[in-house]
Design brief:
CATH architecture: Roll
Organism: Yeosuana aromativorans
Cofactor: [2Fe-2S] cluster
InterPro entries: 2Fe-2S_ferredoxin-like_sf, 2Fe-2S_ferredoxin-type, Adrenodoxin-like, Beta-grasp_dom_sf
Bound molecules: FE2/S2 (inorganic) cluster
Family: Belongs to the adrenodoxin/putidaredoxin family.
Number of helices: 2
CATH topology: Ubiquitin-like (UB roll)
Order of helices and strands: HEHEE
Radius of gyration: 11 Å
CATH class: Alpha Beta
GO molecular function: 2 iron, 2 sulfur cluster binding; electron transfer activity; metal ion binding
Strand order of the largest sheet: 2-1-3
Length: about 80
């Protein structure tokens, strides 16, 4: 999420990365991420728009080598 905020948007991250607000909604559009969403992330995603099975909360994705070469799309309220 820090990468997203630093480079693209300043208007996300209302909950400061606690997985509660859903403003950091992203979709994985290329590649696969082998970690799973926990119950809290799933619960928050169920409250935001345009969610599908590729949706994640950026703040819940750890920045490490596992996300090399993955492509995410930032989802805003107006798509
Ligand atoms: S910053 Fe709030 S859910 Fe990610």
């Amino acid at each position: 999420m820090e990468l997203v905020v630093d480079r693209y948007y300043e208007d996300i991250g209302e909950c400061l990365g606690r997985g509660l607000c859903g403003t950091c909604h992203v979709k994985l559009i290329e590649g696969s991420l082998n970690d799973t969403k926990d119950l809290s992330e799933t619960k928050t995603l169920n409250q935001v728009n345009y969610v599908d099975n590729t949706s994640r909360l950026a703040c819940q994705i750890i920045l490490d080598e596992k996300i090399n070469n993955l492509t995410f799309k930032i989802i805003t309220d107006h798509k």
